[in-house]
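Hi R.,

As promised on Friday, here is the backbone we talked about, encoded as structure tokens. Could you run it through your design pipeline when you get a chance and send me back a sequence?
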């Protein structure tokens, strides 16, 4: 059986990139996110639509992973507290306006921390503090961080807009490493696939023990590269070739409609992604070079998805679906066609005015013959292809020309639309 893995978003609760979460809904069956008990979630409209209308976004309590992740961090604090204090020690702020708040995102060591409300980046030396939610760690770890000067109590979080809980304010790098550790522990217990819209955070696939934390925080070691996230990488690359350039502006309702209407083709596509990722994991198990991994993944995506998609495009064109657009285009300058176009453009996305027979008659009787066998052949070609869903996405989300919009409306009028 091919496993279709649900994503596990990290290192934050709220999704940062609208285009990324919309794209993720086209190559992952669902997206879980770490939401401790009592955490107040505040989602924008596009996330609410994916959550409520598609059941794509699901909240998961990390309680079962907290003890293990906390134990790793606690061991690090006990063994190397002096070094940690020198690098990441914090104290109460002197500015009365921010003294009680955490105001930065968790960030990888060496990266600037994004400070909420300031519209600019500050280096770690600027001492912004990131917030860890109390429910994300054990009481022992929380007290150890307070006791060693690696954390301070805060009652506001300007990033999450929360003033209801006592937050653990700590250095953004320390918070980031702990978030990765918690995600890795949770993923290991749930078979969820860690995914992120933060490129630097693509490291939660492998286990985070005290040794790895120390290497990343204190020794400047880059996180090791694993192959566990190949399914997500294959999905990203395969769906990217059919997405519009400005996906953030595409109405989320289109994403929801595509997923619902073409669910069998979507899951057939997910099966193909899982098979490709499984083959790569087996063949590339000993490779640790990020550049080499990227090269092999791109080769596999090109062979298994892009080349198959091109074959499917040619098949669609070969059964008359392009011919009807050409037929409309060759007569587009006539008054009759212009009037027809005006009427169709006003109803794209809804029901085309008039009967299907009347519309076809307006273009020409030859269209009936072209469309007669197109629907059957289209359905057979799409059902037989593992990339049929990608073609649905390409034609459903990308901007279309006037001629293509007319052709699509005509095809839909007789039940042959793609």
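Update: got your reply. Pasting your designed sequence below so it's all in one thread:
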């Amino acid at each position: 059986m091919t496993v279709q893995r649900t994503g596990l978003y990290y290192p934050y609760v709220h999704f940062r990139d609208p285009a990324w979460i919309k794209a993720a809904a086209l190559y992952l069956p669902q997206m879980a996110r770490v939401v401790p008990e009592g955490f107040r979630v505040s989602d924008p409209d596009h996330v609410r639509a994916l959550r409520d209308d598609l059941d794509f976004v699901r909240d998961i309590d990390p309680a079962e992973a907290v003890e293990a992740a906390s134990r790793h961090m606690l061991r690090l604090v006990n063994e190397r507290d002096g070094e940690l204090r020198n690098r990441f020690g914090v104290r109460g702020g002197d500015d009365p306006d921010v003294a009680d708040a955490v105001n930065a995102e968790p960030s990888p060591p060496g990266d600037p921390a994004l400070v909420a409300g300031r519209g600019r980046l500050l280096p770690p030396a600027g001492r912004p503090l990131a917030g860890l939610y109390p429910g994300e760690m054990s009481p022992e770890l929380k007290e150890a961080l307070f006791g060693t000067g690696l954390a301070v109590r805060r009652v506001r979080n300007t990033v999450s807009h929360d003033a209801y809980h006592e937050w653990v304010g700590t250095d953004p790098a320390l918070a980031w490493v702990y978030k990765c550790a918690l995600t890795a522990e949770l993923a290991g217990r749930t078979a969820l696939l860690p995914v992120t819209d933060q490129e630097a955070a693509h490291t939660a696939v492998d286990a985070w023990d005290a040794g790895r934390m120390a290497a990343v925080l204190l020794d400047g070691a880059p996180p090791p590269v694993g192959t566990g996230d190949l399914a997500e990488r294959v999905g990203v690359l395969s769906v990217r070739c059919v997405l519009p350039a400005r996906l953030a502006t595409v109405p989320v309702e289109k994403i929801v409609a595509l997923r619902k209407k073409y669910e069998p083709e979507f899951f057939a596509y997910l099966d193909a992604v899982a098979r490709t990722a499984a083959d790569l994991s087996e063949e590339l198990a000993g490779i640790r070079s990020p550049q080499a991994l990227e090269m092999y993944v791109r080769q596999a995506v090109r062979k298994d998805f892009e080349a198959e998609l091109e074959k499917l495009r040619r098949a669609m064109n070969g059964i008359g679906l392009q011919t009807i657009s050409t037929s409309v285009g060759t007569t587009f300058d006539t008054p009759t066609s212009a009037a027809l176009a005006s009427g169709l453009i006003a109803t794209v996305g809804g029901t085309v005015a008039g009967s299907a027979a009347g519309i076809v008659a307006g273009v020409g009787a030859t269209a009936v013959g072209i469309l007669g066998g197109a629907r059957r052949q289209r359905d057979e070609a799409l059902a037989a292809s593992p990339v049929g869903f990608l073609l649905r996405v390409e034609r459903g989300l990308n901007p279309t020309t006037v001629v293509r919009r007319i052709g699509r409306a005509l095809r839909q009028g007789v039940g042959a639309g793609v």
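One thing I noticed while checking it: Residues 93-99, 117-126, 320-371, 413-417 have pLDDT under 50 and may be disordered.

Thanks again,
M.
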